Amino acid sequence: MRPRSAVVAVVLLATTVGDAAAQEPEARDAALGQWITEGGLSRVEVYGCGDALCGRIVWLEEPLETDGTPKVDDENEDEALRARPLMGLEIIAGFEPDGRPGRWRNGTIYNPEDGKTYRCMMRLADDGTLIVRGYVLLPILGRSQTWTRHRD
Known about the structure:
This protein is α+β, with helices and mostly antiparallel strands. The chain has 1 helix and 8 strands.
């Protein structure tokens, strides 16, 4: 390769990498906000946590027990965490872009109904919903939920 061609190639590569880095926040921002979980029983706020995406419960259809006390994480496998309130509980963490717009991988999702944490991936569907897939070992061994963006 001639020296001039090498310089042009380096400039083009740097421009491409720069464009990808500039687009990354936009792609990440597409998932930010509040999402109504499948079935409508809760709402999760997705927010940036460092370079990743995380999410916490910000609304529950039934936030209180029958005795009027706030619902807690009573199914958690760790007994020391069973008194945590469900409201405000971080249930998704560590999602990073997978290189394709509107897709995230390497995250985890905590299911308060069974007290377990699962590996997880997310993607924005064409209709604007968020497909959240929790799984064990491989994505094929999992279950997806469709979350709908909450509009105030």
